[in-house]
Structures are given as C-alpha cells and as structure tokens.
Amino acid sequence: PGAALAYALTFLASDCYAELYGRRATQVVVNVAFLANFLVLALVWSTLAAPGVDPEVSAAFQAALGPAANIVAGSLLAYVVSQNWDVFVFHAIRDRTGEGMLWLRNIGSTATSQAIDTAIFVGVAFYAAPLLLGVGPVFDPPALLALGLGQYLLKLAIAVLDTPVVYLIVGAVRN
User: Fold this and answer.
1) For residue 96, how many other CB atoms are within 10 A of its CB?
2) Nearest CA-CA partner of 105 in 6, 5, 16
C-alpha cells in the first residue's frame, strides 16, 4: 500500500504538468523519467554483478536488492504504459470539453490509467515474471485479483481526493 500511495502521486504530478504545459511536454517528462528509472535499475544490477571488496556487504546488498527483479520489471512496464495512457486520455478529454472540467480530466484519465497500471504491475510482478524466472507465480489467481482490486481502489480514491490539490497547484502556477 505504501508503494501504491507513492506511485499514485505521480499521476497527480503528471496531470498538473499536462494541464500547464501540454501533451507533448508531459510525454517527454514521462518518458525521460522512465529512462532515468531504467538507468537506475541498470546501475543496481551492475552493482550486484560486480565483485565486492567485503563479501559480507556484497551478500547483504544482494539479499536486499536481488530478489526484486520481478517487482522492478512490473513497475517499469506499468509506469511507461499507464503514464503515457494517462497523458493521452487527459488530452482527449480536454479536446472534447475545452479548458473547463479539470476535475473530469484528472479523475477520468487517472481512473483508466490506474486500472492499466494495476493490471500490468500485479500481472507482471506477481505472475508473469516469476513464471518466466522459473519460480512460479507468487500468488494464485484469486489472490492476484484481490491484490489488484485493493490497489486499484486505493489509487482511485487518491485520484478523487487529489483533485482539489490539482486545482491548487495549477492555479498557483498560473497565477
């Protein structure tokens, strides 16, 4: 839930940015952030692969960061797909409604993109990636569905509750 909460806030940021700077600029920011996260992942994996001076520290680092490959893969894939979808839907709604109804753009784009995000993350992190790694799915299908539904409802609640914050940020920047 902590990671779902933190990640949901990225949609607040991208919706504010999209409202203020437009579709193209927001897609650039989303994709640069994806590349930066991918670079961090590559650095972590290269660090894990490099021989360490102190075997005890190397073992601790491997134990802390090594098993998270499925989580990272699910997170990165979910991020790049869902954030780009969010920007697309945000501007599709704006094209149809004009400059008003920011609340609809914020909630509508985030509600659909969070569904995509949750399905990709849960499916890849806890089912597909472990299956590909030969360890088998982390959860059975009913547990995956419950996990996904719980995460989605939390993210949807955040999208609704963060709408006044979007208005405050956009208003403050415009003024």
Assistant:
1) 10
2) 16
**To which residue do tokens 């902590």 refer?**
2
Q: Give the domain range for residue 66.
A: 2-174
First to last CA, the chain: 35
pLDDT digits (tens, 9 = 90+) for 33-44: 999 988 887 887
For residue 74, how many C-alpha atoms fall within 13 Å in the half-sphere facing its CB? 25
| Residues 6 or more apart whose Cβ sits within 8 Å of residue 65 | 44, 48
> What is the Cα–Cα distance from 102 to 104, expressed in whole angstroms?
5
Q: How many domains does the chain have?
A: 1
For 162, the 3-state DSSP assignment is coil
pTM (predicted TM-score): 0.83
